[in-house]
Design a protein that fits this description.
two-stranded antiparallel sheet, 16 helices, 1% strand, disordered N terminus, Sugar ABC transporter permease, transport, ABC_transporter_permease
Length: 349
């Protein structure tokens, strides 16, 4: 086998034509380089100083320009009225006449004003009476709507309908429900032998009636907020709790409620702000000439009603400004206390 291969190699060498003398071996053409086809690079242009500054400003300043509309609107419609109200509160500011600088006299008068503290007591009393059952009912609705039930979307839309209803219409209807002579509430209480109640004449009855108006309007709104927070809780936690043998009630107290603390904090702060600004419900609860006083004995006059009474009934704008700033400080202090309590509870866990 090897012999035949060597023989073939020799024969191929012999059969090859002889190369002519003086002839050169042909070479393959050399590939062209990219540098050969490109033109020589032009010298780099130097940017002008103003273009460099403009580019630097665009990089650093454009984010602030995008968020500036919010701060501009807040400064015009939020910060300026707040500061101007404080300036007014330092004066004796009647509707007509000169504005006299009085310093902190309005605040000193306010701290010893029994009507102001009565309005503060009514405001926070109505807030407590309305908020506790409202949150309990909202959590129950959220848990129910979070389950797989028929027409779940329809029920979710239905709980928001009271919130979009006119406050004035709701208050007038509830005023007829709690009317003394022909009201639905007294008619139902008569089944149990309870005498007719004048709901606007007593502190406890007026608080209860106004709280029911607030609950009817805001329970569904808070329920949807709690429902959105519940849907963000991972289902793995519930599955692990179910494997450990936890019932639905135990899952609610051990899984759902602890993870809802930030949401509960948010709704509590917004409820405090809304509760301090409560105005339409108590004003229309007992309409008439002295409606702004919240009853004959001021038994359900709120802080906002007292503010409006001083500003637009007595025309004491300086004193009304002091009331407005005191409301702002009360909301701020209560919100900070609420945040500290929630953080302390979360840290203990």
């Amino acid at each position: 086998m090897t012999r035949s291969r060597t023989t073939c190699d020799r024969s191929s060498r012999v059969s090859a034509p002889p190369r002519k003398a003086g002839s050169r071996r042909s070479r393959a053409p050399r590939p062209r380089r990219v540098s050969d086809t490109l033109a020589p690079a032009a010298p780099a242009r130097t940017r002008s100083p103003w273009r460099s500054r403009l580019s630097r400003w665009d990089l650093k300043g454009s984010p602030y320009a995008f968020i500036s509309p919010f701060f501009i609107l807040f400064a015009i419609f939020g910060a300026f009225p707040l500061l101007y109200t404080f300036w007014v509160s330092l004066h004796a500011w009647p509707l007509l006449g000169e504005h006299t600088f009085t310093g902190l006299d309005n605040y000193q008068k306010l701290l010893s004003d029994e009507q102001f503290w009565n309005a503060a007591k009514n405001t926070f009393g109505i807030f407590v009476v309305s908020t506790v059952p409202q949150y309990a009912l909202a959590l129950w609705l959220a848990v129910t709507l979070n389950r797989k039930i028929r027409a779940r979307t329809l029920f979710r839309i239905g709980v928001v309908i009271p919130n979009v209803t006119s406050v004035a219409a709701v208050t007038l209807i509830f005023g007829m429900i709690f009317a003394k002579g022909f009201g639905l509430a007294n008619w139902m209480l008569s089944w149990f032998g309870v005498a007719s109640i004048d709901w606007t004449a007593h502190t406890w009855s007026s608080w209860l009636a106004i709280s029911m108006m607030v609950d009817w309007r805001w329970t569904g709104y808070n329920a949807l907020i709690f429902l959105a927070a519940m849907q963000a809780i991972p289902s793995d936690l519930y599955e692990a709790a179910a494997i450990d043998g936890a019932s639905r009630t135990r899952q609610f107290w051990s899984v759902t409620l602890p993870l809802l603390r930030p949401t509960i904090l948010f709704t509590t702060i917004t409820s405090i702000i809304g509760g301090v600004q409560l105005f339409t419900e108590p004003l229309l609860f007992a309409p008439g000439a002295g409606a702004i006083q919240g009853g004959t004995l001021r038994q359900f006059q709120t802080l906002t009603m007292y503010l409006i009474e001083n500003g637009f009934t007595r025309f004491e704008f300086g004193y009304a400004g002091a009331v407005a700033w005191m409301i702002f400080l009360l909301v701020l202090v209560i919100s900070l206390i609420n945040i500290l309590i929630v953080r302390r509870i979360s840290g203990a866990d």
